[in-house]
Amino acid sequence: MPVEAEELEFLATEEKGEVSALIARPGGADAMLVLGHGAGTNMRHAFMQGLSDALNDAGIATFRFNFPYSEKGGGMDGEKVRLATVRAAVATALNHANGLPVFAGGHSMSGRMFSMVCSQESMDGLKGIVFFAFPLHAGKPNSERAAHLQDVSVPMLFLSGQRDRMADLKLLEPVVRGLNTATLHVVDTADHGFKVLKRRHTDEPVLEELARVAGQWMRGR
Fold first, then answer.
1. If you average pLDDT over residues 136-156, what whole number do you get?
2. Distance (Å, whole) CA 62 – CA 6
3. DSSP type of residue 148
4. In whole angstroms, what is the distance from residue 177 CA to residue 29 CA?
5. What HEC string does 171-190 produce?
């Protein structure tokens, strides 16, 4: 049964103003995940809602949020604004966690924003990062976007689709092996948006798989 979400707002940046957030906290939750959306969606997108519901069912509270551009429309915010927004989202979630361990993560772009912040500064109270489809490359396959991950000190979980065209496994696997605190889980037949094929080798729904693996990983930190 879906958990009723609490709506709130927090200040993204002084210039851009406040953005919306949704906290969904199931009874007996073991952790809270600050959950950011992909570049072309928002916190209420069907994928984000479904993932939040699956995480709640797996005993993980979620803190979904918008960026200023996804809140108010217009082109994507610059990197400085997006980094400030994820910092503010974590700070707000920590104030609403009620003692739960707090992790951060997101689909594609948002996950990368969290790792970039953590590569630049220590985020007190943050236990780890969960990447739902880390966008390793946008065009020609390469590992340039992964360079900053060497400077991230918190544990990282990569949930990546077998058919993800933005994260060639031949490149992603050695990247993860080269990190001291990283784990990779490959989702059978999934693409970057976690759409799967009928020939998938499990009957487990893909969102339940993502939530199960992420929940187990968070509880083990």
1. 95
2. 10
3. G
4. 31
5. HHHHHHHCCCCEEEEEECCC
User: Which amino acid is residue 83, in one-letter code?
Assistant: L
Domains: count for the chain? 1
| Order of all β-strands in the sheet with 6-13 | 6-13, 17-24, 60-65, 31-36, 102-107, 126-132, 156-161, 182-187
Q: Is 122 helix (H, G, I), strand (E, B) or coil?
A: coil
CB count within 10 Å of CB 149 equals 24
Task: Could you list the beta-strand ranges (E) of the chain.
Answer: 6-13, 17-24, 31-36, 60-65, 102-107, 126-132, 156-161, 182-187
Domain of residue 153: give its range: 6-219
Residue 2 binned pLDDT confidence (cut-offs 50, 70, 90): confident
Domain of 38, CATH number, reads 3.40.50.1820
Is 1 among the domain residues? no
For the whole model, what pTM was predicted? 0.97
Please give the backbone phi and psi of residue 131, each rounded to the nearest 5 degrees, phi first.
-100, 115
**Dihedral in degrees, nearest 10, Cα atoms 58, 61, 67, 71:** 90
CA separation (Å) from 158 to 7, 75, 214?
A: 28, 28, 9
Asked if 114 contacts 106 with a C-beta cutoff of 8 angstroms, the reply is yes
